[in-house]
Design brief:
Layout (H helix, E strand, L loop, with lengths): L1 H5 L4 H23 L7 E5 L5 E5 L14 H21 L4 H28 L15 E6 L9 E7 L2 E9 L9 E7 L5 E5 L1
Parallel strand pairs: 5-7
Antiparallel strand pairs: 1-2, 3-4, 3-6, 4-5, 6-7
Helix pairs in contact: 2-3, 3-4
């Protein structure tokens, strides 16, 4: 069995395949649990008194989307190794043909990784709602609003299926709780001016 993977020419493919697969799996797992962004340090102490310090700090999460990232290098090694080994042992191709197939498989893995990360990136959304989105929307008075700008109350709006509360004033008569209102303008202090709807 070891001759299948570590025989004379096969070792050129097996070693990158195993190293790439292990490193790629580790980085992918850390990325999904958030460890790639936390700056975790792991100290491993072996019986032969070798200290290995692994720094998994990836900095900004956008590094995962760079073309020459550690994930893409590991994906290439994984594709090259397993593709070349499959070509060499599975089909009986020559070392040169297997290496060419390994390079193509590695490039395919990098392309596939790029598409996967692009799809993951598109899943991100911002929970921020700009106050300008409140303009011309209708909502309800949450805390009574005094008349003629004499003080501030609060209104409740639903924007993009999310409930938001804003401080509000009115230029007209006082507005009691639960009245329907419409936002007329956004004020400099991030409050809104409303009128009865």
């Amino acid at each position: 069995m070891s001759d299948l993977f570590f025989g004379s020419p096969a070792a050129w493919f097996t070693v990158p395949a195993i190293v790439g697969t292990l490193f790629f799996s580790l980085r992918l797992a850390l990325m999904f649990v958030g460890g790639a962004d936390t700056g975790m340090d792991a100290d491993l102490d072996f019986d032969i008194d070798v200290d290995v310090d692994i720094d998994t700090d990836a900095g900004d999460s956008s590094e995962a989307f760079k073309v020459l990232s550690l994930q893409s290098i590991a994906a290439f090694m994984m594709g090259f190794g397993w593709g070349g080994l499959g070509g060499l042992r599975g089909t009986g191709w020559s070392l040169t043909m297997s290496a060419a197939f390994g390079v193509a498989a590695g490039a395919g893995m990098v392309w596939l990784l790029g598409k996967m990360l692009e799809a993951i990136y598109r899943l991100q959304s911002s929970g921020n709602i700009q106050i300008t989105q409140a303009l011309d929307r209708e909502g309800t008075v949450y805390n009574a609003i005094p008349a003629h700008g004499q003080g501030k109350g609060r209104i409740r709006l639903v924007i993009d299926d999310r409930e938001r509360f804003y401080k509000a004033i009115t230029d007209g008569e006082a507005l009691a709780s639960h009245h329907r209102v419409r936002v007329l303008r956004i004020n400099d202090d991030n409050s809104v001016t409303v009128e009865r709807a």
